[in-house]
UniProtKB/TrEMBL annotation:
Keyword match Heme: no
InterPro entries assigned: ADH-like_C (IPR013149), ADH-like_N (IPR013154), ADH_Zn_CS (IPR002328), ER (IPR020843), GroES-like_sf (IPR011032), NAD(P)-bd_dom_sf (IPR036291), Zn_alcohol_dh (IPR050129)
Species this chain originates from: Marinigracilibium pacificum
Record's protein name: Zinc-binding dehydrogenase
Cofactor: Zn(2+)
Sorted UniProt keywords: Metal-binding, Oxidoreductase, Zinc
Amino acid sequence: MKDSNPSGVFRGVHDVRVESMDVPVPGDDSVIIKVEMTGICGTDLHIYHEGLVPEGSVLGHEFSGELINVGKNVIDMNVGDRVVVNPMINGTGLGLSPGGFARYVKIDNAKLNSNLFIIPDKITSEKGALVEPLSVGLAAINHTNLNKDDNILVSGCGTIGLVTIAGLKAKGYENIIASDISEKRLELAKKLGAKMTYNPKSDGDLGDVISEKFGMVDSLNYAGQLPNLNAAFECTGVSAIFKQITEVLAPDAKLTVLAIYRKPTEFDPNNVVYKRLNIKGSLFYSADDFLEAIKLMETGKLDISPIVSHHFPLSKLPEAFEVQADSSQSVKVMVDSE
């Protein structure tokens, strides 16, 4: 493989550079992927702003590509297969092994439907790079004990909030309210499946809006009535919003937290007790979540490509990070390998 391997290297806070690195050497248990497209994730931004990984790490864990070398011990995959990667198995692009902001990536101990998943040709490179974040949303949905008639709030319409809305819609949930301070993102939420939207800057009190749309139910402690909100997916990482959601949820409601918080949050735990709230966190995904994401895309039941707001070539990766960091102008930034 006589070629260069330009790679996006983390050199410190707010310092991501494209450097020439060695082309990875194939091994008997590994595969080499020629990267097609990579998304910039919220985790990448946390690293960009705060560090969190060793200097010299090649970032990028949401990517699609084509196998150009398959080790002799790797079964069920062949040169020419198009794949996406489960980055949690090898820490790919997360500081443990090099990621998708590169021309070539090596995946060690390659196993089909474990750390690698084949995608059909009808799934474009762009959509392939969205399989990983969609799997995050599907995992949260699949681990929340939802009923088909639940009234559901998704707070925060960044990538994870939007793919969660799309996943809910594709799985048959209709009563979805999306919350965000960006009208642009709320419009995307409606396109992807939200029945209604709520902007805290302009739409009044959240509890009043939910009550007007979905009605009210009796509380469990004889304290009047509460908005009929049965479930919420918290994707903002804003402490005040977490507190607000615990206040407006109905009795026996489910709250699933997908966001990462930069500082501790305060809320009244009596809301959890008096309303018997079921609160859980959701991080990562299973192989089944990946396979479901691919199937939903392949069958056309779901299309989350509208969330892609920008494309940059790998050579302009620093600029791409700056645009992704500005939520007023971007939703999901994609980096095209060259």
